[in-house]
Give the backbone structure.
Amino acid sequence: MQDLIPALHLSAPEGTLAVGGLVLLMIGAFLGEKSARLVSILSVALLVAATAVTVTGPLGQAFNGAYVADPLAVYGKAIIFLSSAVCIVLGGGWMQRARIARFEYPILIVLASAGMGMMASSGDLISMYVGIELHSLALYVLAAFHRDDLKASEAGLKYFVLGALSSGLLLYGASLVYGFTGSMNFQEIAAYAVQNPSVGLVFGLVFVICGLAFKISAAPFHMWTPDVYEGAPTPVVALFATAPKMAAMVLVARVLIDGFAGSHDQWAQVLVLISLISFAVGAFGGLAQKNIQRLLAYSSIANIGYALLGITAGTEAGLQAMLMFMTLYVVDQLGFFAILLSLSKGGKPVRTIADLAGLRRTRPVTAIALTVLSLSVLGMPPFSGFWGKYYVFGAAVDAGYWMVATAGLVASVVAAFYYLRIIKLMWFDPPVDEVPFDAAPVEARTIAVAGAAFAFPLVIVGLTWIEPLSRVAATSFNAG
């Protein structure tokens, strides 16, 4: 019992979300569907409280090293919990307007956040798998949340089936790693790998990387992403594009830099290949898209390729670059999806790129915000997306991967076409019809403007906070 109390203290963020989620579930069960708004408000408060517990809590290891609370975990979980809270705020009003508001929606996000927090704090293969499955099971349900919609049901089914396949790959790789090392703990695996390198251990590592690549929708394990992004409810897609990506990238860093630091030359080759394929699929696949959410799916594939460059470097600077890139990327995506959630015509959400034509005439502020965010995700200086790419490309070049960084720059130029096309439609093309845009919901409009304002000019101030915090997270992790 003496060992259990400190362990529970260290894992208080996930404990807070798990217990709070169960309490909210009871509130929803007793009060029924009329409790949807109350549960949403309490869920946001719970996630903010979990963030406070994370930031102010102690550091250390618990459960025999299976759970790690270090500055990297604190940094990652703060981004995860806060972005999840924003997604609940965005989703509440949208769900009511679509007449699918249910109290289960915020609870599922809370439980998924507990799993994502576990991923960020994983210290061994078992806690890694538990965190992945806890968050994945909630996301499967969220993808099919609009159960009367055929595309949403299809999205949930595809995500579930392919998610089961990726879990199989991950477990097979983990079993091979355990079989060769005799340990589940990342640090013990790293020590064994240095003393006893073997082809079988690397073979198991490749399967683990393949399973994790699915979770971050990196090519060629991206096949679920466009269909799920298109079919799932837009607030759910906003969640998919932000918090789970951050959690999975922190987990990839833990597995590779912590568990296989001595095998950098082997796993870096795999990550280079995945990054190159992600660049190509994301840049060229997005050119033919007409649906906005499918376009954002291909954009996310390319951006994950950029983020992986930081981990590929295997250095403190590379890990810091990945954290900065993902932080700026999450803010841009929240702003982008807030704009999508604020746009509708005749009560129907805007889905196609062509529907944005002439947006400046009726919604000039939204057009300006979308222009800023498009230029930011594109990587145009001095917007926030530029600084994210600047850091990851710089870390890759410093580590000797200048050719891969060059390929990333070329992919960015190709991807510029579909972002510039959006800007051109908004500002220069006439509307496709005379149906006016509906009034924007307050919460979506506010978050959209805030996201655009952060993309520029507030990012200049934000970097003075993000840069030192991410450096502490990377340095304390003992990368390199």
The chain has a mean pLDDT of 88. The beta strands are 60-62, 67-69, 344-345, 348-349.
